[in-house]
Write a structure and sequence with these properties.
RND_pump_MFP; 6-stranded antiparallel beta barrel; 4-stranded antiparallel β-sheet; Elongation Factor Tu (Ef-tu), domain 3; Efflux transporter, RND family, MFP subunit
Amino acid sequence: MNKTLLFCSLIFFFSCGEETQEKEEIPMETFRDEVQATSVKVGLSEKKSFDYLINATGKIEAENQVMSIVERTGYLIDLRVEEGQLVKEGQVIALLDKTDSQLEWEKAQVNLRSSQAEYESRKITASVETTFSEDLDKEARDEYWRASSGLLAAEIAVREAEINLDKTEVKAPISGAIADLKLKKGSLVNAGDEICLVLSTSLLEMKVKVLESDISFVKKGQKAEIYPVSGLGDSITGTVTSINPKVDENGLVQVTLKLSKGGSLLPGMNARAVIRAPQNNNLVVPKEAVVYRSGRPVVFTIDNNEAIWNYVEVGKDNGREVEVLDGLEADRTVIVSNNVQLAHQAPVQVSTE
């Protein structure tokens, strides 16, 4: 009985040993051949011009905005505009009661005529007088008569009356749209009271703050795309017109953009600007080619239908392409899909779709 049990145990031991040995002798290439290749799409690493995109936000402003004010005291008898209305420069937007101004002008005219008569009388008298100073030439004598007769003062009084009369018509200082209307018809107003703001809605600009680390990439004349923060509406083209030479306490620099047109943007709106800063002869790859492993950027290339793992150093990112500073050469085929979980030397198949 014991001999039989011992014999069976020996047979089992040698059988297991042979099976284990057979499994160990199977080459690893066999398993690799059995793994199905991952279907991937590819791109190319290229030396090319690279548009670095600088994003910033700010408010839309009218390039010109002027407060229209009352220049004399009186009753506002007519208001000819409403908010949002477009006006031309010099267009009458409000009327003040002109009764007092008209009376002042008429009195000045009467005084002017009296002074003109006195002036003529003095000229006639002086022409027959022999005691008049012979040292004065004709122009000096005429100026003397005009002053002594009160004609000069009367002429100035008439001009002042005409100016005051003209001030009863409040005119638009610039062409634009009426905003912030503050007075109502029938109000008693004083000199200096504000009527409304006139905005040049056809001439808009935007002031944005740019990081000091990016300001070296911004130059006058560069183009930008302006978008409403709401995301609604098409982009508007803008141009960099000025760069403030001062960095503020937050490390930001103010840049002014002039908009080519208003579109759906209005003064006071929040907007986003994307300033394009072209960079020449940079090595770039499609953004999808860069994945991160343990916090480090990796780009997979293809060699003999296998994915090759490349640690890279990346630079600027414009949303479509990424600048590669080190770790990759130009004109290499790079994997841009199904590369998140890809392993080094994993078999791949390039998709033709």
